[in-house]
Design brief:
Number of strands: 12
Distance between the termini: 15 Å
Number of domains: 2
CATH topology of the largest domain: Nucleotidyltransferase, domain 5
Structural class: alpha/beta
CATH superfamily of the largest domain: ATPase, nucleotide binding domain
């Protein structure tokens, strides 16, 4: 059995695989990591693979909890038919790279990989397997938090998304959604201009995927646990 760990900015998601079958999975907030040692201790694990973009203390706690050798996965220049054009892969979050590797398994055409969590990352992958790089911007909650903390009058309940908001609450909801979806659709448009092909498929994952999806154009897929899928690919290479 192989333990796969996705340590994100807000919480940790994990899964245990026996071959291609998922035997167990779970999630924990950063303050709940002590419970993971108990959950994992009796599993017949041959190894663990981790993507970590959280603080160092989180990675250290997970290394202590894992009852087997822990492999920390990092971005690479090339893997699984994908060529990474990032200038310095050492500075790239492993979660972004792993999401791209997973997307390559799901779709062989042009792809925009959007991970909507604490931050929104938008990655661009061509049908030829060239990962061209991507965007990082605040996620839905962080955008609203910044407006609430950085202005005098915008710390208020969010309204509904509308084409022409006619109230401040709706303006907040609509402005944040326009920023998130605009980043995704903008990269999709730029990729089509570069390749001369039709619109790429957007593969959307993360806690805010369902919130964002209705405001994006087709083709679109929501795929849960994309980073864990990428870890599974690496662990079985």
């Amino acid at each position: 059995m192989k333990l796969l760990i996705d340590a994100g900015n807000s919480r940790v998601k994990w899964a245990v695989y026996q071959g291609e079958s998922c035997a167990a999975r779970g999630a924990a907030e950063h303050h709940e990591l002590d419970a993971l040692a108990e959950a994992w201790k009796n599993l017949p694990l041959e190894g663990a693979w981790m993507s970590n973009v959280a603080k160092r203390e989180v990675a250290e706690a997970l290394a202590q909890a894992a009852p087997c050798p822990l492999h920390r996965v990092h971005a690479e220049k090339q893997f699984g038919g994908v060529c990474n054009h990032y200038r310095n892969t050492a500075e790239q979050g492993a979660d972004r790279w792993l999401a791209v590797l997973a997307a390559r398994e799901i779709c062989q055409g042009d792809v925009i990989v959007a991970c909507a969590g604490t931050a929104l990352t938008v990655e661009t992958l061509t049908a030829e397997g060239d990962y061209l790089g991507g965007l990082i911007l605040p996620g839905h909650g962080l955008m609203l938090q910044s407006l609430a903390q950085g202005t005098a009058n915008l710390n208020r309940q969010v309204g509904e998304v509308a084409d022409f908001p006619q109230g401040t609450q709706d303006a907040l909801a609509s402005g944040v959604m326009a920023a998130l979806t605009g980043a995704i659709e903008g990269q999709r448009r730029k990729l089509a201009e570069r390749t001369g092909r039709g619109p790429a498929t957007v593969i959307l994952t993360g806690g805010d995927a369902a919130r964002i999806a209705p405001w994006l154009a087709a083709p679109l897929q929501i795929v849960d646990n994309l980073v864990l899928m990428g870890l599974h690919k690496v662990a079985n290479s």
